[in-house]
Structures are given as C-alpha cells and as structure tokens.
Amino acid sequence: MKKKTVKLVSAVVVLGVLCAAYEGVNFYVTSQEEKETEENDTSVDLVSLEADDITAVSFTADQNEVEFDKKDDSWTEKSDANFPVNQDTVDSAVKGVASLTADQEISDVEDMSQYDLDSPQNTITLTTADGDTTLEVGMESSNNQYYVKKADDDNNVYLVSSTSIEPFMGTLYDFAESGTFPSVTSATITDVKVDKENGYEITQDADNLFWNVSDGKTTEKADTTKAGTVTSAIGSLAYDKFVDYNCTDDSKYGFDNPYAVITVKYTEEEAVESDEDSEESTDADTEESTTDEAAADTSEDADASDEDSSEDEQETQTVEKTLTIYVGDETGDDRYVKVDDSKEVYTITKDSLTDILDSTMSDFYNLTVSYVSSNDLDSLEVQSADGDHTINIVTETVKAEDEDTTDDTDSDTTDESSTETSDESSTDTDSSDESSSDDEEETTTTTYKLDGEDLDESTFTTFYNKLINMTAQERLTEEYTPEGDPAYTFIFKDTDGKETTVKYYEYDTNFYAALVEDKVYLVNKMNVKDLDEAYQKMVNPDTEDAEESTSDTATEEN
After folding, report:
1. Which of 77, 121, 129, 505 is geometrically suited to a Cys-Cys bond with 83, CB 3.0 to 4.6 A?
2. Tens of pLDDT along 351-406?
3. Which is more confident, 335 or 554?
4. According to the model, what pLDDT value does residue 306 have?
5. Contact, 337 vs 345, CB < 8 A?
6. How far apart are CA 332 and CA 351, in angstroms?
7. How far is CA 257 from CA 196, 244, 331, 396, in A?
8. Residue 150 parent element (H or E)
9. Architecture of domain 44-175
C-alpha cells in the first residue's frame, strides 16, 4: 500500500513538471512570434493629422483642380458655392488620409518614373492652420496599393492601401449630393409613350385593364405580357452616375435633339385634409356659447375627442401624374438622361432602357388569332373541304313561380287577422310581397345546335376552346397574298350582331397563315391538326362511335 502511494505522488510531480515545461515553451514561442512580427512590420506613419483641424482639401478630378473648403463644419466647392456637396462623403475621404499609415517604405529611390511619380496622376493636399501636407499619387500596384510620395521628399516612396486613396481618384460628382430617380410603380402606370424613330404608345383600358398599342396611325389590342415588360422596366429605372447639377447647354448631352422622349402617365395616392369636422365643431361652439360652465367643459372635452378621431382618420385621393424622361447621347455603356423640367443630368445604363427604347409597335402585337367568348357567341359557320356547317347557341331564360297552395282556411285566417291594427296589417302586406318576390326565380338554359340538330356541349366546348385559344408564332408585317382556297373559314357572329371572319391558308411546310381582316398570323400546323381532330369529332360523332364499337367487338371476339 505504501509503495502505491509513493508511485502516485511521483506521477503527480512529473505531471507538474511537464505542465510547467509546456507553459515555458509556449511563452517562448509566443514571444518569438511577436518579436518576428515586430521585426517584419514595415508599416510607416505617413500622415498624422486631426481630421477636425483640416480646413481644406484639394485634388485633381476630371483633369481639373478641385478644392473643398470647410467653414463652420460645412464643406463647399471653392469654384462653385452652389455645388451640392455631400458632406458625409467629403468627411469620410478626408479622414481616410488625415491619419495615413503606409504598408511599406521604399528608401533611396533614384528613379521616380518606375512608380509613375515623375508625373503623378493625382496630387492630394490637406490644409491646416500649420500649413499644407501634400501627397503625390503614382501607379497602382497589383496588391490593391498605390505608390505615394510626399511632395517635399524626393528620396522615399510608400505603398499605401488603395482604400484611403481611391475616393480621390474619381470625379467631382462622386462628392455630390445626388438625387434618386422618381419612384413609379409598374402597377400604377396607365400610359407609356416613346417618342423616337419607330416609336409607339401603349395605353391601358380603364374598363377591362387590357392594353392597346398605337404607332400614331393605327391602334390595336396589345399583348399584356409585353406591355408589362415595358412598365416593369420603367418601374425599375435607377440613375447610374450624377453628371451635372445645373445643365445650361442641352447640346452637351444631346438633349437639344434627344434620342428619345419617354412620357409616362401614372396614378398616385395622396393624403387630403377634411375640414368637415372643424366646421361642425365651430358651429357647435357657437350654439353652445350661452350654456353654463359645466356644459362648456363637457363640450370642450367632446370637441377634443372629435379632433383626435379626425386626426387618426386620414383620407386619400387618387391623383394622375406625368413623368417625362429625356434620353440623350450615349456615354460608354450609359445614356444621359434628365427628367421633367429638372436641370440635373444623370446617366442610366443602356441595358435598363433596352425593353423600352428598342421595342416597336409590332413587338406588342397580340398573337391570339381570334377570340369571341362562348358566352357572347350567337353562331359559328365553318367552311372546309368537308362541307359547310353552322353551330347555333340558343339561350333561354324562364321565370318559375311557386304554385299557390293557400286554402280556404288560410283565407279565413287572413280575413280574421285583417281586424288587427293598421301597423300589423301593413307589416303583413310587406312580408307577403317580399315572399312573393322570393318565390320568382330565373332559370337560364343553353343548348347547342349543329345544322339544327342537338349538339353535345362537351364536344362543342372542346373544339371551340382550341379555336379561340389558337396562338400564332408570329405576325407578318409584310404584305401577304394567299394562294388557292382557304383550308378553313370560320365566321363568328356575336350576340350584338358583329361578324368576324378568320381564314386559314397553307403557308409552308410548318405553318398556316390565318387571316383576320388585314392581320396575318403564322400558326403551327400541329396546332391546326389538333383543331381539325376536335372538329371532326364534333361533326362526325357517328363515325367515331362506329369506330369505337368495331374496336370493342374485335376485343370481345379475341
């Protein structure tokens, strides 16, 4: 037992020694790493100023000298006191160079040209009460650093993080307080007019929300999806760059002869104040002016309550507004734009304008060949090589009245009750009239006739849906003269007596040409084949039944 105790104590001692040794080694390694880091730290304090002490900063932008002066904690552009300076942007840029640490110092430089510092691309000067501190900026390295030197030091070059220098390497308008593109929601747009070569106008019908498209000469129903693409593009427009806060020469940006003028009409909800409550309150105060003090206090409390309620309930009204966008010359991947009567000029990316500016009237053509709802259809005549057939839609409305089940006993009871009061009698009469009205119901029935014979509704509906939902691949814009007789002629007559004729002609191996008035649609032949199959099932139901019967008999025999 004693031997085991001695061994345990020895083990504890050894463990303690090992832990102490580990701590010693760890401390040594850490110390060495810190020492090596200090030895390898090549950073140098290049500029050490208090940002609040800087009263001016100058640099080169757009090949012009720019200077911002600070007075009463506010920056102004020296050459143009009206320039819309973004105070936060200037403050941030100044702070970035006021206390500047270089990542590396290159000493005893004999040839400044190897860093482009013989002809620096920018010169940044910070002014304080003690004088100027000037940095000359050379080339940019591959490690997101700039080569920089002090103006009064021709021997040393410093590598400085681009984060501090980059704000001064742009344009003057990088320091401007820019506006935002007017907020227009796609869903609120009711009209878009693009005035340019091959321009167009799309207008939403207020009654059915369909879109129409016009080129100024003709107007027709537009494809809803394409119209939505344009309105969505307008709703997503945003400025790219701020260019000019006070444009006095439109020709500088191409606004004297704009590439396009986009006029957008839209609606917006605006708050309106209602003065009804205040008028009523004034009248009430006048009438109650002669009441006692207690009543007056009660009235005041009520008026205060009414006022609070009025403030909580804010009325709005829908207001129609117009936005005009002037599109000028190209500049790189952008175009110059300005809106309404503003003198501010911005750029917008050409890509964001593509759906708006590159569209023509033909892009909005609705590719539905013909659409007359079955609810509005009176008759349909079909002419083909198989003969002519006419389908009629017959709709009848019948009023059904409940039979009179009142017997003599009920009559006697009614007579006795007539001796009751006039009010009760009147109530009974009104109730009777209401009951009579409820008993009358209208029943509408619709039947289908093919050449005067009953036609199955399901069979007709299958065929008719394929017909009115026929969608073309494209619409021909050039003149087309059909050859030969049409494969199909459909004559729609609606309940208002209006007739629409659609003729299908063989066009090529892939398409039929569907003619509707002066419009020519190219329709895939496979879609017409499906239509023909549905039509044959409708006009030849006996043939189909016979084929099915023959097939069933053969199956039974087998």
Report:
1. 77
2. 999 999 999 999 999 999 998 999 999 999 999 998 999 999 998 887 765 444 44
3. 335
4. 53
5. yes
6. 12
7. 10, 18, 16, 63
8. strand 145-150
9. 2-Layer Sandwich (3.30)
Characterize 95-118 residue by residue with b for buried, 16 or more Cβ atoms within 10 angstroms of its Cβ, and e for exposed. Answer: ebbbebebbeebeebeebeebbbe
Full-model pTM: 0.72
Tokens of 97: 């160079």
Q: Is the pLDDT of residue 9 over 80?
A: no
Max CA separation in the chain (angstroms): 130
Instruction: Report whether 511 contacts 472 (CB < 8 A).
Output: no
What is the mean predicted confidence (pLDDT) over 232-243?
97
Q: Which residue has the tokens 């006697």?
A: 412
DSSP 85: B
- Among 36-40, 331-335, 382-386, 507-511, the range scoring the smallest mean pLDDT is 36-40
Those residues with Cβ within 8 angstroms of residue 194's Cβ, 6 or more apart along the chain or in another chain: 200, 201, 260, 261, 262, 356, 357, 359
**Does residue 171 sit in helix, strand or coil?**
coil
What is the spatial distance between Cα 189 and Cα 235, in angstroms, rounded to a whole number? 9
Same fold, 186-276+312-364 and 374-401+441-541: no
For 45, how many CA atoms within 13 A lie in the half-sphere containing its CB? 4
490, 381 contact by CB (below 8 A): yes
Averaged pLDDT for residues 145-149: 97
Residue with tokens 């650093």: 145
Domain ranges (residues) in the chain: 44-175, 186-276+312-364, 374-401+441-541
Helices marked H in 243-314 — which ranges?
276-287, 293-312
Q: Are 244 and 329 in contact (CB under 8 A)?
A: no
284-322 burial, b for 16+ CB within 10 Å, e for fewer?
eeeebeeeeeeeeeebeeebeeeeeebeeeeeeeeeeee
Q: Which fold has domain 186-276+312-364?
A: Immunoglobulin-like (2.60.40)
Confidence grade of residue 443 (pLDDT, cut at 50, 70, 90): confident
CB atoms within 10 A of CB 136: 23
C-alpha to C-alpha distance for 472 and 415, rounded to whole angstroms: 73
> What confidence score (pLDDT) does residue 558 get?
46
pLDDT at 262 over 60: yes
